[in-house]
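Worked example 3. Consider a protein that binds farnesyl diphosphate.
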Amino acid sequence: MSLKDKIDQSKLPQHIAIIMDGNGRWAKRQGEERIFGHENGVKSVRDSVEAAAEIGVKYLTLYAFSTENWNRPQEEVYALMKLLVHTINAETATLNKNDIRLQAIGDLKSLPEDCYNELQEAIENTKNNSRMTLVLALSYSSRWEIINAVKQIAKDIENKKIASADINENLIQSHLCTSNIPDPELMIRTSGEHRISNFLLWQLAYSELYFTDKLWPDFRKEDLFEAILDYQTRERRFGKTSEQLIS
Ligand code: FPP
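Given these inputs, the predicted complex is written out as structure tokens:
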């Protein structure tokens, strides 16, 4: 029985988020420049998108570029942006063929103009697809997102659209970039690092976290299936006791 066949469809996470980590180390191990790792990471992106869509996951979020990544050497940032534009451009037809909608979260206006335009075009061209939504986190950081949400809420209070007593979980959630996306049930990070690194801090509150030593360019469909199988062995209690879950 293949790993894929072992997956229990009734316990499938509807949203999986991935911190794709380890491209630089993968390249270094082969005596190559860091960008070689990013280029090979694209294959893993393709495999993960295909695998998630095949088994019926509804949302896949990939952390492609963090706010902090702007501090990397200029040439790496430039090469990564070029790779992103190229990949988005090259993959739009495949996304359409597979009925996958593209969305993006983050400070998109801070992206180079060609990257921003390419992204908006792909989002527009895939907006009617409904099998799965692929969310790219680009120039994204969770603290940036939460600060923005707080600013918008403060403005609405200032303009007397809402009162401070109206602030609750739903209101905050509705001001996040992910307001139209359910929280991930499963978050995967590759490369052996056990950190969340400013990724979806609000949304991951009750997510199951899965860490693998595999570096991102080595991550394949089977690795995603393995993570899902591990997730399916977990008991999600949301603060309750095991006994309460049974009754
Ligand atoms: C982390 O590895 C990876 C990134 C910052 C970029 C991920 C980008 C891609 C895989 C390119 C294509 C993506 C899409 C969505 C089209 P790292 O550089 O931090 O590795 P290290 O920790 O070994 O240095």
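Take a moment to read the result before moving on. The beta strands are 15-19, 59-66, 100-105, 132-140, 186-189, 208-211. The chain has a mean pLDDT of 96.
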